[in-house]
Amino acid sequence: MKSLKMNFRYLAIAGTALMMASLPGAGQAAEVIELTQTGCQFLEPEGTDHQYTTKQKADCEAINAKTAEERLAKAKVMTLQPGDYVFRVTNKNVPYELGFWLRDKDYDWRNPVHKLTKTSVSGGGLATGKSGDYTVSLKPGDYLFSCPLNTTPDYRIIVPEG
Fold first, then answer.
1. Kind plus residue range of the DSSP H or E element containing 118
2. For the stretch 68-80, what's the b/e string if a residue is b when 16 or more beta carbons lie within 10 angstroms of its beta carbon?
3. Domain range holding 113?
4. Which of 46, 47, 50, 74 is nearest to 63 (CA)?
5. CATH code for the domain of 145
6. Cβ(123)–Cβ(134) under 8 Å?
7. Each residue's pLDDT tens digit, 45-57
8. Phi, psi of 20, deg, nearest 5
9. pLDDT tens digits for range 83-136
10. Number of domains in the chain
11. pTM
12. Taking residues 67-90, what's their average pLDDT?
């Protein structure tokens, strides 16, 4: 009888493992999305390097106050499928440390409930020429990404229903 119970236990474990392995995306590595920052912008959504000269965050605040709305109207909206991603962000030529912030479009950092229920991934420390990886699982919805340290516009990501 003991042997029969053990066999059922092994069958249950094997069945669970087989079911988990057959789920969509199971065992797949996260897709890497490469993003490049130059002064006051990310290159990939804008499609062009505007060659902005910046020595500090305030330079980008002034540049984007004048140009961000027009640039965002022309920027590509990234469309991704639900799943796991690594956003690899590179500081191409900005002479100060940069970061990255990806969050739900309606995320409010002041709202404690959002900190528990919404997506927000961020970090800094990207010196000139350095890259950093930011891992996130995206569900269907609208997202924004930007760099608060380089004061870029908020670029859009759309994740449609599966």
1. none
2. beebbeebeebee
3. 29-159
4. 50
5. 2.60.40.420
6. yes
7. 999 999 999 999 9
8. -65, -40
9. 999 999 999 999 999 999 999 999 999 999 999 999 999 999 999 999 999 999
10. 1
11. 0.81
12. 97
